[in-house]
Design a protein that fits this description.
Blueprint lengths: L4 E8 L7 E6 L2 E2 L13 H8 L2 H11 L3 E12 L12 E12 L4 E3 L2 H9 L19 H9 L12 E5 L6 E5 L1 H7 L2
Antiparallel strand pairs: 1-2, 1-4, 2-3, 4-5, 5-6, 7-8
């Protein structure tokens, strides 16, 4: 889990026109770089430009003719975003979901392992996978201890917590470190 701002990129296929491209955070669409943002600059469009997301999603749709849309969700983090800046002077992005919408109406969320392999082909970083075969403990205290037990793989500092996701990618939940919350969000 990374302490930042939720960032979503979606591209929907159009038949005779340019595909629709959306940049969002929670319930807000940032469709233009000059659109008002929560931060000094529009970090959402900044990440779209930095990782050429529009081109990546266009290419992905071109390579997968059975798709109607593709959505990439992640976290933008770094300087000035939340209190935990990961010792960055700039901003960065890590993906945590790749969602595929098929023309037949089915929607698939890739599991984290497959998502990481797919996005590596496009040089898009993904959140670190801490453990591919984790077994849930019997108590919440044990889970919270595990969430706080190791340093962040991003920068070696305090880890915010972990997100647990089933291998089919369909179910997930967060375990946030109490120590992290006390230090950065109290």
């Amino acid at each position: 889990k990374i302490d930042g701002t939720s960032t979503t990129f979606t591209m929907k296929r159009k038949i005779f026109k340019e595909n629709d491209f959306y940049i969002c955070s929670r319930n807000v669409v940032f469709d233009k770089p000059e659109k008002e943002c929560f931060y000094e600059t529009n970090v959402y469009t900044e990440m779209a430009d930095k990782y050429m997301i529009k081109q990546v999603l266009e290419e992905f749709l071109d390579d997968h003719k059975d798709l109607n849309f593709v959505t990439l969700q992640g976290e933008t983090y770094g300087a000035g975003i939340q209190k935990r800046d990961y010792s960055l002077q700039e901003h960065d992005f890590m993906a945590f979901n790749l969602i595929l919408g098929y023309k037949n109406g089915e929607v698939e969320r890739l599991n984290p392992i497959l998502m990481t392999k797919v996005l590596a082909n496009y040089d898009i970083p993904c959140v670190p996978i801490v453990n591919e075969c984790y077994t849930l403990p019997t108590t919440c205290d044990e889970l919270l201890d595990y969430a706080a037990s190791e340093p962040s793989q991003v920068d070696g500092g305090m880890r915010e917590g972990i997100v647990l996701r089933t291998l089919d990618g369909k179910q997930s939940f967060k375990a946030v470190s109490n120590e992290f919350l006390l230090k950065y969000h109290s």
